[in-house]
Structures
1.
Amino acid sequence: MEARSEIPAATTGHSSGTGRAEDMPPPLLTKVAIIGAGRGGAALIELLHQLRTVEIAGITDRNPAAQGLQLARELSVPVFAGVSDLIGINGLNLVMDVTGDPAMEKILRRQIPAGADLLSGPSARLLCDLVRHESALQAELLRTDKLAGIGSFAAGIAHDMNNPLQLILGLAENLIDECDIDAVHLQAQDIVEAVKRTTAICRDLTSYSRRSSTHPDNAIPINSKLDEALKIARYAVGLQDIEVRKSYWPDVTVTGNPDEILHVFVNLITNAVQAMEHGGALTLSTASIDGSTIVRISDTGHGIPQEMVSRIFEPFFTTKPPGKGTGLGLYNIKNVIHHMHGTIGVESRLGQGSTFTITFPRETGSNDGSGSP
Amino acid sequence: MNEFKSGFFVGGESCNGRVLVVDDEPDIRKVVRMTLQKAGYEVLEAENGAKAIETINAGENRLLLDVMVCDIRMPKVNGIEAISYFRQNYPRVPLIVLTGFPDTDMATSLLRQGVVDYLVKPVEGEKLKSSVARAMEQRELARL
């Protein structure tokens, strides 16, 4: 029996879900206008655009260089030149004034349309504090899950570090009484290569475990990011009995935070391999269809029972034994993907395997250069 | 079944015994071979548990294999499965685990199953040789 679940991106009023989400009644939307696009406004827009029950009608700020305006453009939230135009929008339910300017509050109190509430002054400040706190918590949650995952890397790291160390020790011991100069040269070269292997492991892992960079708007070459994730995932899960198949569309990129997308891929690959206890095939594929970028990670493992498919993206939901999974992996993945305005879905057949599909909206390709369709 | 000590006569030359080294990393097999050959052992190699089983069942190895040095994390038949197979089918061939992963629970479990030693890489040549020598003694006792 096939089970499906698709988690759509949070709506900003113009996107719609598919899969299971289509069966639900449409959420009651709160139409919001945001006045002020400084730090508070930016944090607010970042959080609100993830909520399916909120439509951000627009944002405005006197300062055209305010950080929240740039973010709004990236998130396809309308940016208005003046307050009057913004609060003149029909059907507003809430005007949020996060400027902290008492004069602005007075103006808004006079001009606010009938039927809309105004949030300003200390209430708005408190809300901004809460939103920033929530945003910091989300970032910490992602890092916690990443660090918890690194704990499971112990076996892989030990294997990959200790094997070259065994080679180095064995060769060094041999060199003590090696008289053949050619053999000495060859063995010294082997030692150098073995040292390089161990340093590469440290480099991979320290770069993976660092906090996500704060500059999210990089063009990420998806194919090489998948390759990098595969390299890191093999510390957590043995790939000895896994056949890895790749089907890459050339030059696909998406815009987002490269550290976060790497975390997403590492997590999905690790889950896929863990689902194939007795070996199987892991397929990584990318495609570009009608401007959207599709990434699929498939396994031929045990599959996910139908009753669990709809729950796997919930926080703290895990099927792994205590101490093996935080239950935050797929929840964090969903958040990262939604943050990038993408969708993530899963199709699974018991005993046959699962396919996770991530769809990123319209992106133009640039230089990646790895693989071919 | 009569058993013979490989040290008596192997390939026309005497040796201290025949050791099968099972590890998926060719580099590891190379250095272990280097160390053990210097100590006078003949070394056979297998790249995974399946190959090890194939090797021990091939020809005279069944009779002449003295000791096995086995990794744990390997493709196809992994070390745990291979060790379980050897303990069942060749209980008199002493086993030494040489692994990259220091896992106390696994070490305890394997030592309880009769594994001679659980060595964690990187292991010094002297320690490996002394472990193999101890295993050889155990093999001798099993023949009596």
2.
Amino acid sequence: MSTFDTNPVIPGAADAPPPGGTGTPSSPQRLKPPQGHKRLLTRKDRVALGFMAGLPTFLHIALVWVTALASIALAFTTWDGIGFGSIKWVGLQNFRELFDSNPQFWPAVQHNVIWFVVLIAIPTPLGLFLAVQLDKNIRFSRVYQTAFFLPVVVSMAVIGFVWQLIYNPDTGLINSLIGANKPGHYIDWIGDPDLNLWAILVAAAWRHTGYMMILYLAGLKGVDPSLREASSLDGANEWQTFKNVIFPTLRPTNTIVLVVTIIESLRAFDLVYVFNGGAQGTELLSILVTNNIIGESSRIGYGSAIAVVLLVISLVVIIPYLVSTFRKERRA
Amino acid sequence: MHHTPSGLSVPGPSRRTLLRGIGGAAALGAAVPLLSACGGDSDSGSDSKTVTLGSNSSDAVPKKAFAEIYAEFTKKTGIKVDVNTKDHNTFQEQINSYLQGTPDDVFTWFAGYRMQFFAGKGLASPIDDVWAKIGDNFPDAMKQLSKGADGKYYFVPLYTYPWAMFYRKSVFKENGYEVPTTWAQFIALCKQMKADGLVPIAFGDKDAWPALGTFDQINFRTNGYDFHVELMAGKASWTDAKVRATFDNWAEILPYSQEGSTGRTWQDAAQTLVSKKAGMYLLGTFVGQQFTNATDLADLDFFAFPEIDPSFGQDTVEAPTDGFMLSKSPKNKAGSVQLLEFLGTPEAEQIYLKADPNVVAASTKADTSSYSDLQKKAYAMISGAKSLTQFMDRDSRPDFTSTVMQPALQKFIRDPKGIDSLLSSIERQKKTIFASS
């Protein structure tokens, strides 16, 4: 923040022809010299400001709030998407149907939770481990860094496609290597509901590890080297230094990691959609929303109801985070 | 506007930022009308010498075949056809908003419920005037398929293809197999093939729609065409003992179906037939696309799905039909009608079939002399059928088939024992879906 604030002052002072002291206007104005800082804004400025604030506000309201509220409203209706006249108010029926008779809904919620737990439990510590190793300035560290980060650069859809080839029951890499592509020995990585979620999570974790590594690496670069020095002077070994000194200073990074992982697990979609279209075993809320809304004679009301459930879950997660962040900011 | 600690604003740079901001806002403002222009009408199609046409034939072979038909039409009438081709699946997914926006004059679509749905919503124009001219070219079954629920015509069929059991003649000859016509013979053949080390029935249901075709065949063989139609229309109950009987029959052949099917695409399943690892495969004639080698293709043959209940025999054939519809307010109505009339002629169909040998003409007047053996057989099968069905996702509500039936059938394939709770779940969901709209 500090650089942001001071920077503009310098070119501003250089621009103003009279390097005026306090009280004199520093801008080349032909109008009468303004007295208070209120007068520093001309009519034009105010119009421009209004426009600048108004347009983004308008776009934000139209694209974020109106659409979000509209989909909440639609969650209580049935609508096939053809003409506004066919919207019918049905109250809580969509939700009742969703909770009681949709065989895919509860598994989807469960899979979103599993997704989060797995991402936090495996790739996150692994990413941290890799970051710590790379932070030691070992040889070829740039090469490793690039290699681990590459999956993050590749789009999720491409990752899904590639892993789907690896898991293909007949011609895929894994089944070919272990000889599981013959009748009687099939391992159906993509279709078997006991396996497919874990198979996809391997792909997701593969990508997430690189992501976490970069976040932690950035955090580690910001750790004051004197802390390390002090701790080694105190006779702490490497593990003790990490546990008692380095990791606590990574707190802000940990918060970001947690938020990023929650977001990743709630918005998980493209990977699974390409992998097997969200078949049994890999249902996710986002995929249920898409399957119900996209396509012909769409069930927009019902799909919106699922989207609202997803929204509520997101809010439950995000609101405590925002509250604690604001509280901290106010304290600071 | 930021204030320095002394309480003074720093106007110089902020003015600059302001100006930059105005520039940015102006650029945004300019972009908005640009964006809206994307959705607006383009005037290119409004003159009387051009007909616009929205097409879902994004694959190379059909795209070229269609282009040849339009070229012939332009040669005859001097009316240009402005084709707007979209990816096949995208076209289907966007059809709702496409038809409500500013659709092309004529668009490609499917016969059956899926056509009637949009006709019923007023998103297509009736074309009885076209059928007054082309009516004689088509058999009664095709006429039925082209009518909306109100009895008016909305659809011009171009081509059709049957679903059947495909096999390789050489494999049957080598092993001394005979084409089964009854369920008992079919089961015996499956057993024999398994003993001979073949996969009796190739199967790939990763995309979730192939199993719909298997259900259709077993259901109308077990319960007959009438019940099948009632079931598809949401009238008959899925918990009916008749439906249970269909699934019992299916469960009987599941042990002979290829394992791991929910992870396999239909293309991969077809490859096992190509490589002679599998004995039979239930699919549409488009399975021929996977037989890239000419001698393999010549070895490909098919038979109708075996009889299950003698009172229904093999009288029903599943023959999805593709064709054209007229959008709700075409800009060039006269030209569109002329185009549809031309598309309903045997001539147009023959141009298409020359380029795509996996399908047969919808018209009985089309010249069949250039047909391959497979096409001749397919043609005979369709024209000999007492009733024609389209396909589950064309005969029933697409939202029901895609969000309920596709996952349900995948579940059944893996766990046939859980059928009772599955059927009551289907029935529960069916009731709410068919109750809406």
